Amino acid sequence: MTTCLRLVLTCTCLVWVFTGSLPAAQSFKVIELWPGTAPGDQGGIGEEHDTTKPTDNQVAGKRVERLGNVSKPTLTLYCPAPDKDTGVAVMVCPGGGYSILAMDLEGTEVCEWLNSLGVTGALLKYRVPKRPGLDKHVAALQDAQRALGLLRHQSKAYGLDSKRMGVLGFSAGAHLAAVLSNVYDRRAYPAIDEADGANCRPDFTVLVYPAYLTVKEENDKVAPELNITSNTPPTFIAMAEDDPVRVETGLFYAAALRKFKVPFELHVYPTGGHGYGLRLTQELVTTWPQRAAEWMRSQGWLSSHSGERQSR
Question: Which CATH class is domain 3-36+62-298?
Fold first, then answer.
């Protein structure tokens, strides 16, 4: 049995789940982020459920699971086959305007792709919709910081390299990934346990059709919650020029990274719009996963496991 398949007893609740629809070598494990109610939550938002209606738009001819009313955030680990495992982990943040989560299009399907690269996909189910009285990203940032801290704190038990943990987000989830990549030196909630003392800075960041990175009304100034510094992680950005969210959000964010000499790679495609995930269509923008994999490989993130690897 691989390290990634061991049951680890921690202060968090670990739930084992298996499904016949996944490859035989793949499993996933669900980690509840908070030992009780999430910070500041008052309840009363309704039952978590798939909000997708029959009339909702499909993507590449397939429906999208739009999960709403999330009050119990989790991190689900999708492990690659042991013979491909690099020890790298990427936390995946689905988008949905901080109202819902596109859990398959920008979540489980992405984790399966990461597994094909030998990477553990850590799917973050963060709280939506935004909580009253808070900025749209605050509850989600608490969940993201807690999740990456837990992952790094337990990295050896999970068979992961604590120095190669990235974050990948789509749309609002890309905004969340960018906030996490710039707000890591202080927790957005009171510390609970030792995991909250672990570093929650991602080692690298992938942003796909990001939203909310700039303020349109202020000449596309980088959003105030994104305090870019020279310590912001290396970043990959991909989006389409005709994205209704506006390509400027990626362009001006990349320009800010350059100002601080943060390594980045930016891909802007002529067409493709928004919300395609990694479902392949005739649009060239849907080849972004190949470019992202090439970037991760060129940066050394996909090389063989470092010395932290435990025997399998």
Answer: alpha beta
